[in-house]
Backbone:
């Protein structure tokens, strides 16, 4: 580039409403307090972060440090009590828009009256897919997680680890741009945990999605490119994992 030239003037203006290049999520001074008065708990304290497409993050921190609350805020499932959160790259708050975020909850989350395939297909149906498409995508997602044999089972017939893997299949089936996984291997043995993380990493790469996994497992943290830590509700995003 010639001396004195300004790259900004060479750039075309962004069309209004275009989301490409924008972070999927942007948080400024984001906080969530539960309760009030002397018993109030500040679960997340003034978090600042941006999640661009393609980011891989291991979210670590002790139990009770605020990981789940932060993930729920990022998914739009919790209301902040202070600060701001925006989803420019997702065209606004993903809450109430099934299949935009692939959320894997820490606890049980399958609907008990639906079988495994129906559970995995549900967000797709709610997002407007035809039943045939939704069922096909559900079957593909279950296959990736080596769960074909469980397709017709009810959640009550599954072990905790199997249910956790079905929840991963459900999150990935919708091909989300943002995958938020809350201790997704907490009930899995080492090999099953490795498979789940490999499938999530491959899916994120394929979709150009961002992936945030909260975990206590050092092996998992080492497989993700960034590590964010939460300590007493305070988020630190400074560390590279490797
Ligand atoms: P982590 O996922 O790191 O274990 P959480 O986000 O679940 O941490 O919890 C952070 C803090 O917020 C904890 O002190 C927890 O007790 C509190 N907390 C979480 N959810 C609620 C809630 N719904 N009501 C009151 N306190 C809560
Ligand atoms: Mg948690």
Residues:
């Amino acid at each position: 580039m010639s001396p004195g030239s300004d790259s900004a003037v060479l750039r075309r203006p962004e069309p209004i409403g275009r989301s490409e290049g924008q972070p999927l999520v942007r948080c400024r001074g984001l906080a969530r307090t539960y309760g009030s008065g002397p018993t109030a708990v500040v679960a997340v304290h003034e978090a600042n972060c941006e999640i661009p497409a393609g980011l891989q993050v291991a979210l670590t921190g002790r139990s009770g440090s605020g990981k789940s609350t932060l993930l729920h805020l990022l998914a739009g499932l919790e209301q902040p009590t202070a600060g701001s959160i925006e989803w420019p790259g997702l065209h606004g708050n993903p809450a109430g828009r099934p299949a935009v975020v692939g959320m894997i909850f820490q606890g049980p989350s399958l609907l008990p009256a639906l079988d495994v395939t129906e559970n995995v297909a549900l967000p797709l149906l709610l997002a407007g897919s035809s039943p045939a498409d939704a069922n096909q995508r559900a079957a593909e997602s279950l296959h990736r997680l080596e769960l074909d044999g469980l397709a017709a089972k009810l959640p009550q017939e599954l072990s905790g680890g199997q249910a956790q893997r079905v929840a991963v299949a459900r999150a990935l089936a919708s091909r989300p741009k943002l995958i938020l996984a809350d201790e997704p291997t907490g009930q899995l043995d080492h090999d099953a945990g490795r498979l789940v993380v490999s499938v999530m990493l491959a899916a994120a790469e394929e979709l150009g999605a961002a992936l945030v996994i909260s975990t206590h497992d050092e092996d998992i943290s080492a497989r993700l490119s960034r590590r964010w830590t939460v300590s007493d509700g305070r988020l630190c995003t400074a560390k590279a994992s490797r």
